[in-house]
Amino acid sequence: GYVFIARDITGERQAEQARAELYQLREANAIKDEFLGLVSHELRTPLTMILGNAQALGARFRSLPPEVVEESLRDMTANARRLHSMVESMLLLSHLETGHDVESEPVLVQRLLPAIVEQFGTAYEGADIRLDVDPALPPVEANPTYVTQIVSNLLSNAMKYGSKGSPIELVATQGPDAVRVAVLDRGSGITEEEATRIFEPFTRLDRTQFQASGAGLGLTVCKRLVAALGGAIGARPREGGGSEFAFTLRALEGAKAGAAAALAGDTA
Ligand code: ADP
Hints:
The protein has helices spanning 10-60, 66-97, 109-123, 144-161, 192-197, 218-228, 254-267, and strands at 105-107, 129-133, 140-142, 168-175, 178-184, 233-237, 243-250. The termini are far apart. The chain is built from seven helices and seven strands. The protein is of the alpha+beta class and 268 residues long. A hairpin with a 5-residue loop joins strand 6 (233-237) and strand 7 (243-250). The protein binds adenosine-5'-diphosphate (ADP).
């Protein structure tokens, strides 16, 4: 004969799911706590400098030589700028973190990149950027504001950590189902190991500490922006010295691409 044993496991499944969710929440909370700790630490340094300078100026303004006053003010401005850029980056990161839908549209990289370079050249005097873009690139699905921010961040790093005498190269090529945008410089470069580390928040390499100021958030922002657009970003040492930073943008699939290309032709 047979013996039937039936057991209702709905309750057990629900409990297991609840445990898994609780674990995820704890994990997310721990990451947030760690990030908050890092942020507070990073904000404290420029704030302490501003406060110290402000107090010294307040107490001894009349007796200090003008050049000391000027230097103090310059320090305060530089540190305030740093704070400002950190706060802006963190606001953007938190906005991306909340999983907002990214508004994307067909973008022609071959159109957008020259505009970014022009805008960048106005902001950074002496920027020598060589643009090398395949004119037949397919349209990508992207958000032009995000792409502008990613490229500008990478160009600004190439300016800060690159070699003064060598031009920065901005290259766009077609890859499988994607367009690849790369920024290359001839600076101190990065190693394979550093290449993954520098995308983590507040990571600054020791050897570049005194080359330029920064908050160590630019590449984190780039990574999150690229991820929001469904692409990937990475860095590697460049052959012959320097570094190469590259990211991909998804090419629009067939039908939409045809329509976008026709539209681009109309407005060319
Ligand atoms: P920041 O420039 O504010 O320090 P980033 O997140 O943009 O922050 O960069 C993190 C670190 O990665 C930099 O401090 C620097 O050490 C390294 N890095 C970034 N770009 C380059 C580059 N083009 N060449 C060499 N090192 C770089």
